[in-house]
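Q: I have 157 residues here and want to know how they pack in 3D. Can you give me a structure?
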Amino acid sequence: MARIDRYIAVALLAFSIGYGYLAWTHPLLPFEARMPFKPNTMPLGLAGLGIVFSSLLLLLPSNDTLEKDAEGWRGFAWKNTALLIGLAIGYALLLRPIGFIASTTLFIVLSSRVLGETNFIRSISTGLISSGIIWYLVDDVLGIYLVALPAIIGGTP
């Protein structure tokens, strides 16, 4: 009797072969032909890994631990997952109005509370330090303009 993991492995193998073919036949611009890392390098690597791992799933013998896998989904923290997804959506919506540093700090503080951190001072300091470092790296090192503060405080939109 065929099992669902074999069907999924066949589907992933077919997808990886198609993805690799499309990446291989993707036309490159003239200046991209001699680049060491081309636009199709990463897709080719992902397709190769997909072919290798899905082939391993098909060729290696399987064990019968589906009951244990199904039991894991029943004990999954669905409420925390939904809260984190909601926080990520809220972070994306608040990014422009209140600025990068404030929205990132708020996201880190609230998500750490959802994940079980009880020390509020540690959450705030981690949020402020990490959002400040990330803002500095993106804005100054990479040269990508990122509004750090809201317009009310002095940030420019």
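Q: Anything worth noting?
A: The chain has a mean pLDDT of 86. Residues 4-25 form the longest helix (22 residues).
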